[in-house]
Prior knowledge:
Keywords: Membrane, Signal, Transmembrane, Transmembrane helix. 10% of the residues lie in helices and 42% in strands.
Amino acid sequence: MKKILILLCMFLLSCVAFMSSTFAEESVSYPRGKNYLNLQNFRYHNDRTDLGDTFEHIRVKSFVWYTLVLDYEFIGQHAGYPEYIKVLIEEGFGDDFYYEYMTDDPYNGRVYVEFMPVLDWIRLHEIPVDNTRNYDAILYEGLYTDFFGYEPYICETEILEYGGTLPIDYDHQLTTEQIKSFIIAKDPYGGSLEYVVETDDYSSSLKTPGSYEMVFVSTFNRISKKYFLDIRVFDLTSPIITLSGDIQVQLSEKLTIDEIKQLISVTDNVDEISPSDLVVIQDTYSSATTVGHYSITVEATDLSGNISSLVVPIQLVDLVGPTISGPFSIFLYTTDPALTNQQILNRFNVYDDVDGSNVSFDIITNNYNQQTSPGIYQMALRAGDTQYNFTYKNIEIHVIENRGPIFIEDETIIQASSAENMTDQDIIDWFKNLTMSSGLTVSQVSVLYNEYEGNEKLGGSYYVYLNYELDGQIQTSRIRIDVKEEKIEPNYLLIGTIGGSVSLGFLTFFIIKKKKI
């Protein structure tokens, strides 16, 4: 900014110097001012008539009204009989001569005559004049009602209009008084003159960049001259682009460039500029597909052509953890095998919007631990992505009791393989052992009848009748064998007995459980 102000000051100084230059109108045969009557071209005849004339022709505009005005003091003694004052007008070079009587204006002390030449050149003859020091005589375009006052004839070298250009920085506006201080009006002898502001487009404007005109007028010796000042307001300040904070964008929800622009602020000292007006001149962000640091460079240009730019850093981040989809509760019966930790994790699907399936999934709280007792057990699951974003899910493991009563067998129940068939001898041996465990001694044991034989694989109740000797007496007993078909592994054979006396014998039963085919 300091460098800009220095350049502006140098420009102002050069323009102030330029303001001393003049705007010279192209020289034509017409007078520089309004007065066509050049007294250098006037001949005064000091004779009885006290008349004068122009010895050289005056160039005029054909078919345009002209008025000759003479002050009473200029015409001298002729003012005593104004009704007789007339002027001889010659048009062309002797082509036409005619008299025009002058009209008296006693209130203002002057006489005048109005005429319209049809040729481009005229001479004036028999102009009333007195050899005095009054030079108030004028010939001008227009009628008497347009009379503006006497003005001396202005020579061709006289400068009537001046002009210059004053540059102003929009951010450092000048007041009217400050601008006037750049202009000085002086008389031909070096004395200072007052001047007024005739027109001022600058002070009444908004002073936005552009050109404005101020016209100053100063008068000396009844000659008014103008100074035309072209004020040019310049915008030298570039737009200001700011960023309120770092821009972080979720990789899975990337913002568009237009959306990124709306996160940037841009202002200008003069023009209305919005983020939409920003132009991207560099971009590593749009094509980015992974987490990381990227940037775009934006540029703003105001209507005066001032340009500014800003590098906008953008960080693509992954701030969202994986999603865990699956049940909130898992139900098990006590008869079901306990679930392993991995079996529990396998019941869930885990996915990350950035890393996909490249995630971790584990149990961080485990109150279940393969419990088989009825109850509700809390577990906490955790999933994490490569950016260490974690998602948590709490679940419950419900272990439900679904078993009925349980009977406890006596130690007399023996087990045998379901694939093993008990022969008669097996039953006899078992019966002997059973009676011995009861403190009895039996002998001569034999199988009278065996319903079980041949029905080992069929469910039902079968009896085996035994004959034996106990304490010297022959006894008879029967054994009931219940064959039940059940889905159970491993297969086993239960043989139960119930001691009882049947004809002084025992009532015994076997329970055989076989795998259902």
